[in-house]
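Shipment paperwork, digital attachment
Item: protein structure file
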Amino acid sequence: MLELLQFRHSPYNEKVRWALDIKHVPHVRRSLLPGPHLAVVKKLTGRTTTPVLLAEGQAIDGSARIIDWLEARYPDPPVLPAHATERAEALRIQSWFDDDLTPRMRRVEIRLVAVQTQDRSQPADHDHLERQTPARARRGGCRAPPAPHAGRP
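Attachment content:
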C-alpha cells in the first residue's frame, strides 16, 4: 500500500491528497511534525520537503513529481488534461502556484502569525506588515503567470 508522508496544513500536500482521492488510490497518510521531519525525509529523498510518496520501494518527493507518477500508474480518472495544449497550460499554472504564488502566501501567513503571537495583551499592530510587504503586493497584485509562448518564427 502507498504511504504519503505529509504535513497536514500545506498546499503542496493538499494537492497530492486531492489527486489520490480523485483517483481513488488506496493509501495511508502519515503526518509529520515540521522540524523533526527533516531527518526522516532527508534519509528517504536526499531533500527536506514534503510531500513524499512511498511506493513500490521508492520515495517520490514533490507534489508535481508525485502527480506525474500517479498519472502514469493510475490514469483513470485523470487529474491533468489529455490534450497537449491544455496539459501544458495546466502545468504552467501549477508551476506558477508552486514557484511564485504559494511562497508569497506563506510569507504573509508567517508574518501574520508572528504578529498575533508577539504580545496578546497588546492590540496587534499590523502597520509593520505594510512596511515589509513588497509594493506590488500592497497594490493588490502579484506577478501573473507567464503567458504561453504564442511564438513567431
